[in-house]
């Protein structure tokens, strides 16, 4: 009887907490990308799975169940310098820049001794989670370990990525990252959007993919063919949610987990909590995120900011990475701020942000109206959407003066619609069947339980792009309807000619 119980216990134990081995690859060294990847790894490890984590920021003491492979050199590959320089750059140039950067990341990672050694080892993985953004060469790692691929990203799925993944292309209602549109576009905007989507996808497909294929050929044992690995992902985990990004149709293996990085608020450091508690007139939190450094604001913009702040009754808490003297008494700078935890404090009334997606989600989660100063990447688009949902006031970086900023803060603070709308969005974000992190875990385990998820692959993925978009059908219909018309016109013309001829004879 005892033995039976022990066996039963073991059996249940095994079936309840099957522990899997997962390789998670995160190569981008910007903080927001790292935060997302690291949070996901933490959640997976908490469930008792063993994770090998390729990361640009190895920890001194990794989470339990996590083995880290540190590629610190990736940090140096990210371009130095002020991101304000990119404000207003040509969209295609920006796209070109990002493509080259992703290629360098891919080359660095695959050629690295630690990754080469990992491939030579006898390690086996049940799944590979790949941070995916124009870095197809890295798919070869999953191929090498014969494991299903789970793609993971920090942004919603844009149409050009949909195109590359053979998902339905959505240029009609998903704005390209370089535009400042929402999903509601007029004809000319849709035309422009279609152009950007396809120019970017085709550029990647024709100029970058062959280079990635060469990387795979050079660095992966057995020289596998990259083109056979494309569009073979079992799952795509997408950082979007209807509360902060627009509702769009997804294929069945694309799962939205937007907001999963937001934790229950943690207790604040004592001094910071005291400061927030004491700020009885309210606090404005000001953070430009991690890539755009506040210290890079030019002198004239910094003057405008401080001039605005000095006239406010509220306190201003500013994430500023360097020392700054001569601050007005109501402005406090800190090199690092736990943004989400501060937003949870009831005295925080307005959040001035660069409009990055994670910050936007945190502002919405905690229902703090936004003033956005977007600079690059998806920030302008995020703000365009936030404006259309009326929970943010935008100030153009180029128009940033004491006057425009004061007016924006006044609006966000005193026009009740901003608070009302962001509270509504916050409720939407929190109302879900499963917590987004639990949902991610469910799907990761699902893919492993089924050894990949080919049963979720929609048939459209096996068509080429003109078939998928019915261009062949449209072409056929055009030909079939036009041919008789053309033929009829020709016949009539000839008859008229003949008649004229017979008249003149
Ligand atoms: C495609 O994915 C399946 C399922 O995960 C895997 O078995 C197969 O090896 C993959 N194909 C390639 C070419 O990597
Ligand atoms: C800022 O001030 C602190 C304390 O006075 C000092 O230790 C630090 O080196 C300064 N940093 C810079 C970038 O000037």
Mind explaining what this structure looks like?
Belongs to the UDP-glycosyltransferase family. By secondary structure, the protein is α/β, with parallel strands linked by helices. 47% of the residues lie in helices and 11% in strands. The protein has 19 helices and 13 strands. The chain has a 7-stranded parallel β-sheet with strand order 3-2-1-4-5-6-7. Helix 4 (91-111) runs parallel beside helix 8 and helix 11 (299-310) packs across helix 15 (402-414). The longest helix has 34 residues, at 471-504. It starts with a helix and ends with a helix. The model has no long low-confidence stretch (mean pLDDT 91). The chain binds 2-acetamido-2-deoxy-beta-D-glucopyranose (2 copies). The site of one 2-acetamido-2-deoxy-beta-D-glucopyranose (NAG) has 8 residues, from helix 9.
Fold blueprint:
Blueprint (H helix, E strand, L loop, with lengths): L1 H15 L4 E5 L5 H16 L3 E6 L10 E5 L2 H5 L13 H21 L1 H8 L6 E5 L7 H6 L4 E4 L6 H6 L22 H33 L6 H4 L5 E4 L15 E3 L13 H9 L4 E5 L11 H12 L4 E5 L11 E4 L4 H5 L4 E6 L3 H9 L4 E3 L6 H10 L3 E3 L7 H13 L1 H15 L5 H14 L15 H4 L2 H34 L1
Parallel strand pairs: 1-2, 1-4, 2-3, 4-5, 5-6, 6-7, 8-9, 8-11, 9-10, 11-12, 12-13
The chain binds 2-acetamido-2-deoxy-beta-D-glucopyranose (NAG) (2 copies).
The site of one 2-acetamido-2-deoxy-beta-D-glucopyranose has 8 residues, from helix 9.
